[in-house]
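Here is this case:
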Amino acid sequence: MTRYWIGVVSQEHVQRGVQGNFCQVCHGKQAPLKKMQPGDMLIYYSPRTSYPAGEALQEFTAMGQVQSAEPYQVEMWPDFHPYRKDVQYLDVNPVPIHSIKEQLEFTHGNWGFQLRKGHFEISKHDFDVIAQRMGLSPEHLGNTPDAQ
């Protein structure tokens, strides 16, 4: 069954992933990526424009569907070999979190703690709310299998 995920990544890094059709979360760690399977949906939340000290943004900035089953490692620099998965990104519009915060389940309580994790699962309800605001049609959402 399809699962739904948030990755917390700066806008600049999200754009690199979208251009390269890959995802990378939690500074390239393998473990979070192993949780995602082909067909799962990933939404990026960008707290800042760039890491570590870019301007505050606080927007959902990209969305895509996971394509690869296993994470793979790449060399970005001789001493940095992050893990990635292939993603097919959708054409969506950024959405400020504060414009929909009251409609989301994961923002109840201490939702900042969730964001600090860098990668976490969300409900189908939260996915649908975010996806609709990002511009996905109800028909597209209807074709996304429900999570159990």
The mean pLDDT is 93. The radius of gyration is 14 Å. The CA atoms of residues 54 and 117 lie 19 Å apart.
